[in-house]
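Team,

Forwarding the record for the chain on the shared tracking sheet. I've put the sequence and predicted structure together so nobody has to dig through attachments.
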Amino acid sequence: MLVSQFVDAADVVHLANGEWPPYHSKNLEHYGIASRIITEAFRNEGIKVEYVFVPWKRGMQMAIDGKLDGTGVWRYKAKFAKDFYYSDPIIESQTVFFHLKSFKFDWQKFSDLKSLHIGGTIGYGYNDDYSNAEKSQEFNISRAKSDETNFRMLLAGHIDIFPITTEVGYFILKQKFKPEERKLVTHHPKSLIAENERSLHLLLSKTNSANAKLMEVFNRGLKKLKRDHKIKQYIDDFYASDKP
């Protein structure tokens, strides 16, 4: 049975959520920055959100199967568009290479990375261009079980660079590492993600045709948040209240 059958002020929307702090986490206030934006956008239209925290791939499949209404947030991928309606952009993020300040690093194209020891996290695909370059062996990656492990390898000198979303990277450094360790790390400003691919979106399942209307409602509520400068406020609120 599909979760939502029609959109009105009494509806509750059920969404898959997961661990991707500071955007999403069951352990953060408002369940993270992106979760708060989604919740408040629906609240603007009189709709309540209930989150189910599961691994991301499982949550996406639950939405495809009609057990949940959707999942967020995700970058646009054509392969997902056949199963999901994409919202207007919620927030933007970019993926960059982190490195030690003592390591003089610059890059403009993937061939510049060929001689470097690059870290990566198991199961992560950073974008299509990067994945294709990795498969064609333009450079080599040693993958670890977690982003935190990669930062520890970086600090130990076992890898030279490590790609991760900027905000996620600094969140992990703040939460998991000592100040004297954090001050050793920086990032290169060039993004791995093209400018037109940096936006993150709510996805609603096409399994339920009523979700097309629900997405219109969400986008209307999101537009009000942007008009009232609430998204910047939520980001500022998070970093003001965040403690290491």
